[in-house]
Amino acid sequence: MTWFQNQTKADTANKDPEARCGVRSFIRVSTAKDVAAVLYKDRVYKEIKTKTTAVPGSKLWLAMYPKALTKVFGKLSEEELEECDTTMEEWNKNGPGKAQQQK
């Protein structure tokens, strides 16, 4: 399957950024939850800290991260969710800023 995909790459995906289809379109689509993970990183870390004393990056800490992120995302206010949505649309259109890419 890989050979076929390499031979039939869609050139239109590279010319038109709105056409996000084809093999060459390697654009990551962000969700509101992805944005919340960046904007409210400190809240997610606090949530994990209340559950465990594991060091950030350890297996136990990483295992708890998705649940903590979901819990923090569920507690966001309407204004914060709106901020996540607008930032998500901006990231999907222009990509995340340099500060977010370097984290």
What does this structure look like?
The longest helix has 17 residues, at 78-94. The chain has 7 helices and no strands. The chain has 2 domains: 1-29, no CATH class; 31-101. Helix 3 packs across helix 6 and helix 4 (41-51) crosses helix 5 (59-74). The two termini are 34 Å apart. Helix content is 64%, strand content 0%. The chain is mostly helical and 103 residues long. The protein is globular and about 40 Å long.
Distance between the termini: 34 Å
Overall average pLDDT: 80
Radius of gyration: 18 Å
Order of helix and strand elements from N to C terminus? HHHHHHH
| Proportion in β-strands | under 5%
Globally, the shape reads: globular
**Domains counted in the coordinates: how many?**
2
Percent helix, as a range, is: 55-70%
Number of DSSP strands? 0
